Amino acid sequence: MSQKQTPRDFLKLIIGRPVSVKLNSGADYRGVLISLDGYMNVVLEQTEEYVDGQLKNKYGDAFIRGNNAHKNGED
């Protein structure tokens, strides 16, 4: 029987890979997942911000508080 994975377990497996983080505001941040902590705060590199599907900004690094994230996933 396989062990049940938590969302945090999944995110730990994809560190170093491209991800998308959708915020409660509707904005979407895409970048390379560098780290996360117990509060589900994430750090991204090569980050791009999309609003309504349109690229709005590019950032080198971005810190996103876990309570602002609606969902996280691999790109």
TrEMBL record:
Gene3D superfamilies noted in UniProt: 2.30.30.100
CDD domains recorded: LSm6 (cd01726)
Family to which the UniProt record says this protein belongs: Belongs to the snRNP Sm proteins family. SmF/LSm6 subfamily.
GO cellular component entries: nucleolus; P-body; sno(s)RNA-containing ribonucleoprotein complex; spliceosomal complex; U4/U6 x U5 tri-snRNP complex; U6 snRNP
Native organism: Hymenolepis diminuta
UniProtKB keywords: Cytoplasm, mRNA processing, mRNA splicing, Nucleus, Ribonucleoprotein, RNA-binding, rRNA processing, Spliceosome, tRNA processing
Position of the signal peptide: none
Main localization of the protein described in the UniProt heading: cytoplasm
One of the Pfam families matching this protein, by short name: LSM
Protein name per UniProt: Sm domain-containing protein
A Gene Ontology molecular function term of the record: RNA binding
